[in-house]
Amino acid sequence: MDATTVTTWMREIETSVTQERDRLVQLDAAIGDGDHGTNMTRGFAAVVQALSQDQEAPPGRLLILAGRTLVSSVGGASGPLWGSALRSGGRVLGDQATFDGPQLVEVLAAALASVKDLGAASVGDKTMVDALEPAVAALGRTVGEGASLADALEAAAAAAEAGMRSTIPLQARKGRASYLGERSIGHQDPGATSTALMIRALQRAAAASS
Fold first, then answer.
1. DSSP H or E segment with residue 208
2. 56 Cβ partners below 8 Å, 6+ apart?
3. Mean pLDDT (whole number) for 132-148
4. How far apart are CA 98 and CA 90, in angstroms?
5. By CB distance 3.0 to 4.6 Å, which of 8, 66, 69, 113 could disulfide with 205?
6. Against a cut of 0.85, is the pTM above it?
């Protein structure tokens, strides 16, 4: 994988969140501000535009640029959280031109650590961590077992989607949804939903690079 993988990933995310914008808005309207779909669509459109202006940067630098762009263009919690996540992941890669499966695990693990540190959330709190942490764990486990990158990313995407669904019966303990108390039960978390979309987008981007 290389810089093209990163730019393809960001384009795939933009496509996914644009297609699912109304659904993300509806999910967020139930337990939040109702702007998650709009924010994610605007943010990743800005990321794709920013990356198109920097064709020579290595993948780590592109992730850092994507993170900075999200912070400056997205309101709510998702901009700072994903902005910090992508910058942390990008710093893992530094200036190297390519990266492999084990390094991708390190990138996503650093992203997860950043999200948990900034948001002070854990699995079970009904946040994006409920999708991201299982995805990172599945990716690390399958890569460590010697699976192909395609199979490992399929496992990661499936784990993210299962984590996303697991938020439905949970009571939110972090973020704006936590203000609703028991009324947050029965709703799928929008941040976990967009996170699952992003991991599935990564799977497609890696497949396009192979």
1. helix 190-209
2. none
3. 97
4. 12
5. 8
6. yes
Our measurement of the distance from residue 128's CA atom to the centroid of its chain's CA atoms, rounded to an integer in Å, reads 8
Note whether 164 and 128 are within 8 A (CB). Answer: no
- Which residues lie below 8 Å from residue 47, measured CB to CB, with a gap of 6+? 10, 13, 14, 65, 66, 69, 70, 73
pLDDT digits (tens, 9 = 90+) for 168-207: 998 888 777 776 778 779 889 999 999 999 999 999 999 9
Q: Write the CA distances from 127 to 118, 124, 152, 163, 200, integer angstroms.
A: 12, 8, 23, 10, 18
pLDDT digits 0-9 by tens, 90-116: 999 999 999 999 999 999 999 999 999
In 3-state terms the chain splits into helix, strand, coil percentages (rounded to 5) of 75, 0, 25
Q: Are 47 and 10 in contact (CB under 8 A)?
A: yes
Which CB contacts under 8 angstroms, 24+ apart, belong to 49-55?
51/6, 51/7, 51/10, 52/7
How far is residue 110's CA from residue 7's CA, in Å, rounded to a whole number?
Answer: 19
Identify the CA nearest to 27 among candidates 162, 165, 120, 133. 165
**Domains annotated on the chain, with CATH:** 3-209 (1.25.40.340)
**pLDDT at residue 179, as a whole number:** 66
* Helix residue spans in 53-172 (DSSP H): 59-73, 78-93, 101-119, 129-144, 149-166
Q: How many residues does the chain have?
A: 210
